[in-house]
Amino acid sequence: MKRNLLLQLLIIGIGAFIWMSHSAGRAADKNQGNTGAPGDATATCGSSGCHAGSSITVDLDIAVMDGNSNMVSNYVPGETYTVRVTVNQTGGNNPAAFGYQLVALTDSDNQSTESFSNPASNVQIANATSTGRTYAEHNGPSNTNTFDVEWTAPAAGSGSVTFYSAGNGVNGNGMSSGDGASTASMTLNEGTSSNFNPTALKWELKLFPNPVRESINISANELLNGEYTITVVDMMGRVVKSFNSPIVDGNLSFDANDLKTGHYSLMVQDKDETAVIQFSKL
């Protein structure tokens, strides 16, 4: 009886140790990358059983934003952006905490860009000598499902860059059972400063808050007045919302509750010009 009890305690202790060591970040504590990127281990750790089970299901969104919180699909060499990974619960039990790992690789050679900085309070930057890559990852079980870190784009001529990320929602039972994990990737093409929309710059069009929750507010530096066409397009190029509305003294607000969680482009058009700005919906 005592022997069986000791064995059970040993198994529980080992499971808790494994979970706690992973909870501080795979690169920092285990010297491993688990983003699902080429050369990394698979994110769900299926072969080793970590974060196994389906009591919690999650998916991930990756958004890269410029200094005005506008989402971008191209990068300007040398510019600094904010990379936000959001771990979304899609089913099952509510997670007690969240974790993630992120790496940025140049597509030409799958080399790490080595350019993360200024992590949020729930994020750390760690190197894994096993892969030779630098990762942004959680620094402990996170109460929030969003993870922000700054990223500086590589030099001109580097070509496209892909962000690979894994995230999990955990039940906090001190073991790996019953947790959920998922992966996502996002590619930015290399651009130049000429990729910026000149009309958006002329109007200095701003959208807030970004990410959007219940409503969208638009403001412009010019006192725009008159009738404008407002169009919202999803990442597949489909028009999901379109209407005509007056803009008074450069300001407009409208409801966004009918938009699903995701990334969108918003176009403001008059008879002569079009301005485009990107945003995400939570």
Secondary structure elements and their pairing?
Elements: H1 2-23, H2 26-30, E1 56-65, E2 74-75, E3 80-92, E4 97-106, E5 111-112, E6 116-117, E7 123-128, E8 133-138, E9 146-152, E10 161-170, E11 180-190, H3 198-203, E12 206-208, E13 215-219, E14 226-234, E15 239-247, E16 251-255, E17 262-269, E18 274-281
Parallel strand pairs: 2-11
Antiparallel strand pairs: 1-3, 3-9, 4-5, 4-8, 4-10, 6-9, 7-8, 10-11, 12-13, 13-16, 14-15, 14-17, 17-18
Describe the model.
This protein is mainly β and 282 residues long. It has 2 domains: 2-193, Immunoglobulin-like (Sandwich), CATH 2.60.40.4060; 197-281, Immunoglobulin-like (Sandwich). 12% of the residues lie in helices and 45% in strands. It is built from 3 helices and 18 strands. The strands form 4 sheets. Strands 2, 4, 5, 7, 8, 10 and 11 form a 7-stranded mixed beta sheet that branches. Strands 1-3-9-6 form a 4-stranded antiparallel beta sheet, with no helix packed on it. The protein has a 4-stranded antiparallel beta sheet with strand order 15-14-17-18. The longest helix is centred in the first third of the chain and has 22 residues, at 2-23. Mean pLDDT is 79; it is low at 1-21, 44-52 and 193-198.
Summarize the structure.
The protein has 282 residues and is mainly β. The protein has helices spanning 2-23, 26-30, 198-203; strands at 56-65, 74-75, 80-92, 97-106, 111-112, 116-117, 123-128, 133-138, 146-152, 161-170, 180-190, 206-208, 215-219, 226-234, 239-247, 251-255, 262-269, 274-281.
